């Protein structure tokens, strides 16, 4: 697997750090708490309590970002890994900044929105880089275990998510290979030219995955 494919969402980097050794439940709970803090409308809540507060507040996401950066430093995750997480979203961050700064003329809101998005991306990166994928999927299956009462199969849900996570880097790699092949021939494929071979590769990958599941007896519902 090429480096560009592995860097899409981050991948587990084995290391002997406190964050790597921490239980999955603790790390997942930390990400959940940070997510809740990022979503809570603290200025509105303070005004409901009779406390004067500005319309926006970037202090909370800034504090959450500081905690995430401290956890990343403890896990020996450097700026290069942060950039790999932020690079795909850089154009979205730029549009958000331009909208709030140029159209709404609200620097405080721009700071709050950008800090919120960056913090969420980096928190996810820390979790993914310090936890092996099998452990993440096992934790998800345990989290979804109450769905058995409704007739759902948490193991099959976990398997579907694992297939999806493995398919995204595969398709990204196919896209890179198509562009490299076109560049080697001195041509440049646009979205229309890339669509057909990409769809064919996706269908072929889906068929191979289905055949592999069938060979292992995983294509039929459990009794």
From TrEMBL:
A single cellular component GO annotation: plasma membrane
Subcellular compartments: Membrane
Main location (coarse class): membrane
Alphabetized UniProt keyword annotations: Membrane, Transmembrane, Transmembrane helix
Top-level taxon of origin: Bacteria
Record's bilayer topology term: Multi-pass membrane protein
Keyword Phosphoprotein: no
Transmembrane segments: 24-46, 58-78
Pfam family for this entry, one: CbiQ
Protein name, UniProt field: Transmembrane component BioN
Lineage: Bacteria, Bacillati, Actinomycetota, Actinomycetes, Micrococcales
